[in-house]
Amino acid sequence: MSVVEGYIQARNLAACLDLLAGVGETELDGGVLAAFETGLKGTSPDRDRWTVHALGRLTAEAARVNIGAGLIAFRVEAPHGYTRAVSAVLRACGEYFLEAQAAPAEAGPPQPGTDA
């Protein structure tokens, strides 16, 4: 196992967790997202207080850097072979504004008579 560390923008938390869940070969559900959001209260990387949750094959730890900075520190433990993908996700979540989007209810070919 390897540990990948990085900082993300707090506004990207849901999108970042969704991407990390995909890398970890699982799906992010509302319960895990709520657990992360609630667990961030009182965390601090300086005091080594983290909220820790499993995301499939990954274990993600998160802590608020400070409220005014709008940053969240992440440490993600990943199996070998997953670290580059985790690094890319953390970099994107730190440098860009990402929007969390729900997947369509049913994916499939367009139906006759629709504009899709």
UniProtKB/TrEMBL annotation:
Protein origin, superkingdom: Bacteria
Name used for this protein in its record: Uncharacterized protein
